[in-house]
Design a protein that fits this description.
Layout lengths: L6 H25 L9 E12 L16 E11 L13 E7 L16 E6 L9 H16 L2 H20 L6 H6 L11 E2 L4 E3 L2 E9 L2 H4 L13 H12 L2 E9 L22 E9 L7 H9 L17 H21 L15
Antiparallel strand pairs: 1-2, 1-9, 2-3, 3-4, 5-7, 6-7, 7-8, 8-9
Helix pairs in contact: 1-2, 1-8
């Protein structure tokens, strides 16, 4: 693995950040509006309460989970591409969680910093788990993002066929195939993962969020039956107009630095050796999850950044380090282009109904 401090490693980082910025600028010119350079399309902006569990063992009572209690949270459900596409095109889905009002030394020197962000995707590993492989994959991703929607659906369909063939003969498909071959499983029934590792106080961990209440567990693996451009926001809004939900936030502590590396986010950590252990419960009450004011707030004001948090949960690995520069650049461009401020919420009172 090339050290990030080397001249060649620095050149790779600059190239990645530059290409992501160029793609974001092209999309902004096309839409006359700037979106995020990844996870551009939102499906819901939801609020809730995160309760840290009592009597956690010492190895889990770390960082913001060291003290039992309840925090307000705001979350954004999204699709992974860096441009706005029809929901009919299968794609990885995102669940970004902002925990409001946490204590601890900050990673970023923001004067109003008091929140902890965890950005998660519905697949446990990242296909391009190092910056070198990410640079190689950028061309493929950029090319596919420009394809007509029919070609994109064919591409993801082909990936699912190849993935199925590999599984049929007892093999394990690579992370790239699994990521490209996502189906349109119900976003509220999915389990979401940070993919990359982070500090967990005295330990190293990955964070995940899994369905806990019976109503969302019943949605796991269920097809959303997407029928048009924006079906997902309508499906989620219909659910939360009538029902509440619970999810469990979990920590997967690394037990072996060789088999559970932090520098390669494509390596799946063995769940038998390093189980996902519950640390907190997320409760989401029935609400209007995608009103016009919420959509505008989520798209144009709200920001999420894996480096927005406390030192005890510092992101680790080359992908996480390049994301620091990428997120800073993307956020700055988006808010300057749209002429909108980016204040951090201090309570749920700041979130529109």
């Amino acid at each position: 693995m090339m050290p990030m401090g080397s001249s060649e490693g620095a050149n790779i980082v600059r190239d990645i950040v530059s290409r992501m910025a160029a793609a974001q600028a092209r999309n902004a010119e096309h839409h006359r509006h700037a979106h995020r350079d990844a996870h551009a399309k939102s499906h819901a902006i939801i609020t809730g309460q995160l309760t840290v569990h009592d009597d956690l063992p010492h190895e889990l009572a770390q960082g913001i989970f060291a003290t039992p209690g309840t925090h307000e949270v705001v979350a954004r459900l999204s699709s992974a591409p860096g441009d706005i596409h029809s929901d009919e095109i299968p794609a990885p889905r995102g669940f970004a969680l902002k925990i409001i009002g946490v204590e601890g030394e900050r990673l970023l020197s923001a004067p109003d910093g008091h929140n902890q962000d965890f950005l998660m995707v519905n697949f446990p590993t990242l296909a391009f788990g190092t910056v070198g492989r990410y640079q190689e994959m950028l061309g493929l991703l950029e090319k596919n993002s420009q394809n007509p929607e029919l070609l994109q659906r064919l591409a993801t369909g082909a990936a699912r066929v190849v993935r199925g063939a590999v599984e049929a003969v007892g093999g394990t498909p690579g992370a790239t195939l699994q990521g490209l071959g996502r189906d349109n499983a119900h976003v509220l029934g999915e389990t979401y993962f940070t993919q990359g590792a982070l500090r967990y106080g005295d330990h190293v961990a990955k964070i995940s969020l899994a369905p806990a209440s019976e109503n969302v567990r019943a949605l796991t693996g269920q097809d959303m039956k997407v029928e048009d451009f924006s079906s997902i926001s309508e499906i989620v809004a219909d659910f939360f107009s009538r029902e509440s939900a619970e999810y469990v936030l979990r920590a997967q502590l690394a037990t072996d630095p060789e088999r559970m590396p932090v520098e390669d986010a494509s390596v799946l950590w063995d769940e038998e050796e390093a189980p996902h252990q519950p640390v907190a419960t997320l409760r989401i009450e029935a609400q209007e999850s995608y009103s016009h004011p919420r959509r505008v707030y989520g798209d144009d004001a709200l920001t999420f950044n894996p480096w927005n948090g406390v030192v005890e949960h510092q992101p680790l690995g080359s992908i996480m380090r390049v994301r620091k520069r990428a997120y800073e650049q993307s956020t700055r461009f988006r808010h300057e282009f749209n002429d909108r401020p980016a204040p951090e919420p201090s309570s749920l009172d700041d979130i529109p109904d």
